[in-house]
Structures are given as structure tokens and as C-alpha cells.
Amino acid sequence: MTDKHTLSSLQQQELEILKEFQRICQANNLQYFVVAGTMLGAMRHHGFIPWDDDIDVAMPRRDYDRFLEIASQFLSSEYFLESPRDKNHVTIVSTITSKHGGFVLNNACKKLHTGAWIDIMMIDGVPDSGIKRTIHWYKYMLLRALFQISHFDEVVDQKRNRPIYERFIIKIAKVTRLQKHINSEKINEKIEKLMRSVPYDESDYVATYCGIYRKKEIVPKVWYGKGKKYMFEDIQVLGLQDADKYLTQLYGDYMTPPNDTNVSKHKVTEDRL
Questions:
Q1: Which of 175, 197, 233, 239 is most buried, judged by most C-beta within 10 A?
Q2: Does the pLDDT at position 125 exceed 90?
Q3: Alpha-carbon span 89 to 92, nearest angstrom
Q4: Measured between alpha carbons, how far is 116 from 96 in angstroms, rounded to an integer?
Q5: Which of 195, 178, 43 is nearest to 125 (CA)?
Q6: By three-state DSSP, how is residue 27 classified?
Q7: Could you report the per-residue pLDDT of 133-176, keeping only the tens digit for each?
Q8: Cα(229)–Cα(112) distance, rounded to whole angstroms?
Q9: What percent of the chain has pLDDT over 70?
Q10: What residues contact 100, with CB distance under 8 A and at least 6 apart?
């Protein structure tokens, strides 16, 4: 299926940000991959999934760190970069965002006014298997939950269908206003320490732990490989070497669109102010 559609204003602006990100990576010999819904869009639609509202890219940890170091020197003045290391950043991924605004995220208690953006995730090593991977995974999930609770009003979607234990945690956090007692900067330091504890170069398995697919994000590193070029709208992007196995693990029969199409996960609307 390679259906094309008219890009929304949000998608058009995100595509321009992706081009800017790609330009910086190419100029500095940095490795990246399109992942998750963007990888799926490249395979199934040769561009955006028609109802998708963001772009996801990921970088091996060393390239990710380097990108954060040098991006300000190369980034167009139209955009700004934020990462979880920044005091007021509310998500566990880095973002490049347009300074022009124009959109509102409606998926949490507090509506966030924003410009178009792309998400930049890090790819880290994980233990090969067994109890070490399980312990590593649950440590991360606890820290991730604490980080998100620390920005409860800005990021937690309370209407999303969730397991019972998650609904319980969200209810407790809402009633107790737990976010006031959690230092997000310290939590992020612990997250980074944990994720760096298993070096990417020494690992056979890697993960974009900050993605939404949780354990499904853990894949053999050879699936990423050195990357492969795919068409995405009017440009070529780098995706996984073995995208078929990756997408099958995340989505199952990924070439068949689901029934709940036209659903924006961030519930983005145009800013009418």
C-alpha cells in the first residue's frame, strides 16, 4: 500500500524539521534511523501515515550525545532543541520544535501550546537476556513512571486505555499531587546512568526504551545494522536494515492499517489564539 494524501499543516512543518535534522546529521557524520510510526509510514505509505501527528527518529547513544552537543551550532534559527537534561522539558525524549507555534496538544490535563516538532530518541544497549534484562527493564519503567508523574499535568493522558495497575498509579498521583514531590532532573540523571550501564557498542540487543511500545522496543542490534534508505514523502531517509522484522514485532501485520484510523495520539489541534 503506497497511498498518498495531502499533508496537513502540522505534517508539512514536521517534514521540514526532519530535513533540517537530516542535514545536521549528514554534515557531522551522525547515525540516525526513522523508527516506530515513521518507519511504518516509510514502508507502508512511502511517507506519513495519513493520520499520524509526529515524526520519530532515534540515534545510537554516542551519536545522540554528539548531536545534543553540536546542534545549537548548526540548527536553523527557526527551531530550538530541548532534551530531558533541560530543566523545563517535560518529556523523556529530545525534541526539535518550530518557534512559530500554531498547535495545541490536548492529551493531558494541561493544554500545551507548541510549534511543530519531531521526537529524537536514544538507542541504548540492553542485557542479552534473562534476569538481568528483566531487572534492567523494571528499573527503567519505575524511573520512567516517576519522570512522567513529575510532569503529570503536562504529559499524562488519563483517557488512554491502560492496564489496571497504571490506572491505579495515575489515580493516586492525581489525588496526592505527587508531582510536587518528585525532582525530574534527579530522576533523569538516574535514567541516563541506568541506560549508559549497558554500552551500545558491546551489546547484541538494543532498545529505544523511551518509545511507546515498551518491551517490543528491545530488538537485535543487527536489525538496525548500518541503515537502509527509504522514501519518505519527497526525501530519502535512513531506516532499519531489517525493517520487516522490526515492524512485525511492533505491529504484527503492519501492512494492513488498523480499524481505529484517523486517531491523533497527541490530540493535536490548531492554535486559534
A1: 239
A2: yes
A3: 8
A4: 8
A5: 195
A6: helix
A7: 999 999 998 898 888 877 665 555 555 566 665 665 666 656 56
A8: 34
A9: 77
A10: 13, 78, 115, 116
